[in-house]
Amino acid sequence: MMTEHTLKFFEEELSQLKADVVRMGGLAERQVVEAVRAVAERDVAVAEAVVVMDEQLDTLQHEIERCAIRLIALRQPVAHDLRRAVGALKLSLVLERAGDYAKNIAKRALVIGQSDPEIPLTRSVQRMGELVASRLKEALDAYSAGDVKSAKSVWNRDEDIDEHYNSLFRELLTYMMGDPHMITACAHLLFVAKNLERIGDYATSVAEIVQYEIAGEEFADPRPKWSGVEPRPSEASE
Amino acid sequence: MELGQHRYMPVLSFPWRRAAPPLPSEPAPSVEQADSPMFAAVFEAIPDAVLVVRREGTAPAKIVASNVAARETLRIRADEEQLVSVLRHPEVLGSVEDTLNTGEGNELRYDSGGLRPQMLRVWVRSLPMPQTAMIVLRDETEARRVERMRVDFLANASHELRTPLASLSGFIETLQGHAKEDPEARDRFLDIMSSQAKRMSRLIDDLLSLSRIERNEHVPPSGVCDLSLAAREAADGLLPTIAAKTARIELLAPPPGEALALGERDQISQVIQNLLDNAVKYSPDGASLSMRVESDVAFDTDAAGADVAALRDSGGGRLTLLSPERGHENRYVRLRVADHGRGIAREHLPRLTERFYRVPGQKSGEIPGTGLGLAIVKHIVNRHRGALIVESAPGHGTAFSVYFPMHEPEQTSVRGVTKAL
Ligand SMILES: Nc1ncnc2c1ncn2[C@@H]1O[C@H](COP(=O)(O)OP(=O)(O)OP(=O)(O)O)[C@@H](O)[C@H]1O
Ligand SMILES: [Mg+2]
Fold first, then answer.
1. B320 shares contact with chain A (CB less than 8 Å)
2. A1 domain-assigned
3. How many CB atoms lie within 10 A of CB A151?
């Protein structure tokens, strides 16, 4: 039986955990925005800053993981409290992955920045990046507000990101076929787009975790959608 | 806990209160006066967002006071909320920590991200209570937006005007040279020149209107617009064009007064007009179009109309070009403009609202246009916190659906619910 004092303490620990996850979300969000900016503006300094940010993200992830596990082990929470702790753990993993992809984008930005001639497609990448970043923002807003409805609305519409990806994919292919000098840079841009698409998937995962944490169940509609932290089987390579 | 129950903090004595020199005519305000309701009211009324945060021990900083502007900008829901839950930008959090640790003030700029990014300037100042700091956020979106717009406008205008201008000079040279004595060539050239000049002036009009709309994008629209009437007017306005193409237009709308949108009539009319203009323009002669207005609908991508699988099978698709933040919380009025024209292939859908984007492969000159119509539509709808969805399949036709937040007349709201379609 927990005394009132431990209860209060426990509640504080949980909200501290949540605060750390939100802080981590802020970092991941920033990383994505800056990585896209690095590509769009061919800015080497920004790209390098993103790579550094990733270390902070990793540190924070370990910290959250440690706290969540300790909290679960020591306090043995049940029901909603357990889901809050597990949710924080899951989210930290998802955000860490999203950050990895942002870092990968930044690294490619360094190469794309050196390409000559300039690829006229960075605007499309930027638009896709903005879309993905805003989706991530909405998902994190939903988490920090504990708002299932907003989470659901993020979860409901990730198709447009796929559409942007497909459209970009075709455009890039056209450029590559038209001018062999562009192939290297375009290939990198293609991976940038792919990484953005995956970050978009992570935004969807964040929304799913919010639903799990609050309602204790997954979204009802059947949906042939990858969800979770592990990579999709078909994309495990690269 | 005790402090947090107040939205403002009457017990805080701000440094400037003490520093205020006594006015000659009146006695200096006593501490009691400084903590008076007046100061609380002043704090609330400051147009910049002001937050007071405090840290206890190693716990993260909490918000202990906020004014109206702060609660609105940051959507602060409860008192005693953790700072990070409303403001998670790493650099801002970093400077708050920094100020709490060192007592030194900080200043930075920050971009909120999202679909309607706000540029904020942030000041962090240490207050003379332990572990307490004040954060002031000023919205500079407007200033920077105007700046960017001017740059964009100049770049776009000069880029787009170059081509018609070059062709005009070419014709002038020819007219001055060997075509001087050839009346037939001269007439033909003058015709082309006049249409180029018209094109240039339309381009400038469009760019100016886009730039005006963009500038106001952050100002919420005021007013109420009857979507049924606006749709009818737009259809009437296009009658000459429609008659010339012998197209048929079908308008399905609730009676006037039943589909009311929150927004500016002129801008909403422009949206309808641009969509209808495209529907007519990109349809073959004699094709029929339809416009449908509905009231009191939810924003739901699936309810927009066509069957996505079928669209995909014919190389098309459906795409949300713009969706409102937290759209599920609102009711909307919807307008859907559908045609049986050439349609648009799936891969072009994401770029439709880009400035100057025209689907490639349509021989230029075949159908005149500058590619600004849908960009204008998007900006207007975004300003109205609405949504825009396109559904299209090559060879079958295109439908654009726009959603505007619904205006609910106070007395008739019950009627509004019962007549939902
Ligand atoms: N109803 C439609 N059917 C087929 N294609 C369309 C339709 N509406 C828009 N499009 C495509 O989208 C492009 C962009 O449309 P938009 O209205 O922005 O520009 P525009 O019509 O070319 O020029 P304008 O600035 O004069 O409107 C068009 O060039 C056309 O290729
Ligand atoms: Mg048009």
1. yes
2. no
3. 28
- On the question of pLDDT at B297 being above 50, the answer is yes
| A12 contacts on B by Cβ (under 8 Å) | 59
Measured between alpha carbons, how far is B85 from B73 in angstroms, rounded to an integer? 13
B 277-316 residues inside an 8 A Cβ radius of A: 301
Q: How far is B189 from chain A (nearest CA, A)?
A: 35
Residue nearest to atom 26 of ligand 1 (CA): B369
Is this complex scored with an ipTM above 0.85? no
Ligand nearest to the backbone CA of B206 = 1
Residue A231 lies in a domain: no
Do the Cβ atoms of A153 and B82 come within 8 Å? no
Within 40-69 of B, beta carbons closer than 8 Å to A belong to 59-60
The pLDDT mean for chain B works out to 82
pLDDT (mean) for A150-177: 84
CB of B226 within 8 A of CB of B395? no
Measured in angstroms, the CA of A85 and the nearest CA of chain B are apart by 17
Q: Residue B106's pLDDT is what?
A: 92
Per-residue pLDDT of A41-72, as tens digits, reads 888 899 999 999 999 999 999 999 999 999 88
Domain assignments of chain B as residue spans, ordered by start? 15-139, 142-219, 221-421
Could you tell me which residues come within 8 angstroms of residue B351 by beta carbon, excluding any fewer than 6 positions away? A124, A167, B357
Q: What percent of chain B has pLDDT over 90?
A: 36
Please tell me which residue, A199 or A119, carries the higher pLDDT value.
A199
CATH architecture of B142-219: Orthogonal Bundle (1.10)
Q: How many whole angstroms separate alpha carbon B82 and alpha carbon B249?
A: 56
**Domain containing residue A67:** 8-215
Contacts of B409 (CB under 8 A, 6+ apart): B257, B260, B416
Distance from C-alpha of B185 to C-alpha of B177, rounded to nearest angstrom: 12
The answer to whether position A226 is within a domain reads no
Contact A224, A218 (CB under 8 A): no
Q: DSSP letter string over B138-155?
A: EE-HHHHHHHHHHHHHHH
Residue B283: Cβ within 10 Å count: 20
pLDDT above 60 (res B29) = no
* Separation of alpha carbons A209 and A231, rounded Å: 17
Around ligand 1, the residues with Cβ closer than 6 Å are B 206, 274, 278-279, 282, 339, 341-344, 352, 357-359, 362, 369-375, 398
Task: State mean pLDDT over A98-124.
Answer: 82
State the smallest CA–CA distance between residue A66 and chain B in angstroms.
17
What is d(CA A212, CA A91) in angstroms, rounded to the nearest whole number?
11
CB contact under 8 A, A167 and B111: no
Q: Which ligand is nearest to the CA of B359?
A: 1
For the stretch A126-148, pLDDT in tens is: 888 988 998 999 999 999 888 88
Q: What is the CATH number of the domain that holds A69?
A: 1.20.58.220
Residue A178 lies in a domain: yes
pLDDT of residue A5: 61
Condensed to tens digits (0 to 9), the pLDDT of residues B383-398 reads 999 999 999 999 899 9
- With 80 as the cut, is the pLDDT of residue B231 above it? yes
The residue nearest atom 29 of ligand 1, judged by CA position, is B358
Q: Are strands B248-252 and B397-405 parallel, antiparallel or unpaired?
A: unpaired
CATH of segment(s) B221-421: 3.30.565.10
Q: Is the CATH number 1.10.10.10 carried by domain B15-139? A: no
d(CA A3, CA A12): 14
pLDDT at B10 over 70: no
Contacts of A56 in chain B (CB under 8 A): 90
